[in-house]
Amino acid sequence: KPAAGFEGVKRISYEDIGGLKGELQRVRETIELPMRHPEIFRKLGIEPPKGVLLYGPPGTGKTLIAKAVASESGAHFISIAGPEVISKYYGESEQRLREVFEEARQNAPAIIFIDELDSIAPRREEVTGEVERRVVAQLLTMMDGLEERGQVVVIGATNRLDAIDPALRRPGRFDREIEIGVPPEDDRAQVLQIHTRGMPLADDVDIGYIAQQTHGFVGADLAALAREAAIKALRRYLPEIDMEAEEIPPETLEKMEVVSKDFRE
Ligand code: ATP
């Protein structure tokens, strides 16, 4: 059953994540296990985490992982982006954070995902803005006050781990850090596989070769590459497509495919 927080949000499963096997395993141990089986943690006498930081370059799958863990564990999912919390109206940012935590508490198990955490929680000494200072303080208060250990977990995502206020990285806050890095070749192949699985690929398309040729591409780049390839294929067929026609002849649809050269930039 989809969690309440997923109304209108696309469900993401672990199968939608290419590569990142070790990372995903750690995320699941850290978040999903205590959420599903708090008794194990009670038995062992350890506290499940309240906060987990996913860090790494943009487009590597941090948001995807957070959504997948929520979908797969049936947790309510609330997503906020750092910059959107910052309000110029006095007290509004703090109010927004209180509402988010309250919603999570009432719908537990729940995951609060804060994207671009560094924008609301930069090192306080670097902060010039009074709003940011108060938002960090509010976030610390909310996390310290969380009593639903393991049943409400905050996942923060950032591209810059060193820009996060150290107070937020202390025990009992965001005390687990998992790096989501640039994918190696094998992982790139898996990401390409996922993003081309709905496409009619010609036999000459060699995913392994494309993975080899795309050093430095992150998941978002590979998703874009696959999309672009399909658009290039579409352009090749355009001259044969009669836009005015009631329907596209099945033979035309039948022969459409994405070929190797469509993937070339
Ligand atoms: P940002 O720091 O910019 O928020 P992010 O790390 O959260 O980036 P995502 O939003 O998870 O990145 O990824 C963007 C898109 O790129 C995803 O919706 C997905 O289509 C694709 N993508 C990224 N990583 C992967 C992956 N490992 N497997 C499959 N698709 C991926």
Automatic annotation (TrEMBL):
Keyword Acyltransferase found: no
Family per record: Belongs to the AAA ATPase family. CDC48 subfamily.
Protein name, UniProt field: Transitional endoplasmic reticulum ATPase
Section covered of the full-length record: 170 to 434 of 805
GO MF: ATP binding; ATP hydrolysis activity
AAA+ ATPase domain location: 48-184
Keyword annotations from UniProtKB, A to Z: ATP-binding, Nucleotide-binding, Repeat
Parts forming coiled coils: none
Taxonomic lineage from the root: Archaea, Methanobacteriati, Methanobacteriota, Stenosarchaea group, Methanomicrobia
